[in-house]
Amino acid sequence: MSHQDAGAGGVKYQTVDDAYFAKRGLTRYAGVASLWALGVGAVISGHFSGWNFGFSTGGWGGMVVAAIIIAIMYLGLTFSIAEMSAALPHTGAAYSFSRTAMGPWGGFLTGLCENVEYVITPAVVVTFITAYVNSIVGFDPAWSPVVWIIFYAIFVSLNVFGLELSFKVTMVVTLISLAVLVFFWVSAIPNMDFSRWALNIGVGPDGAAVELPEGGGSLFPFGFSGVLATLPFAVWLFLAIEQLPLAAEESVDPKRDMPKGIILGMITLIISAFMIVLLNPSVIGVGSFKLSSSLEPLLDGFRAVYGDSGVVLLGIVALTGLIASFHTILYAQGRQIYSLSRAGYFPRGLSITHSKYRTPHLALLVGALTGLAVMLVIWFALGAEQAGASIGSVLLNMAVSGAMFSYIAQAASFILLRRNAPHIERPFRSPLGVPGAVLTIIIAVVTLFYQVQDPNFTKGVMWVLVWFAIAIVYFALVGRHKLVLSPEEEFALSKGAAEYRSH
Question: What residue ranges are annotated as transmembrane (predicted)?
Answer without folding.
Answer: 29-48, 60-82, 143-162, 169-189, 219-241, 262-289, 309-332, 362-382, 394-417, 429-449, 461-478
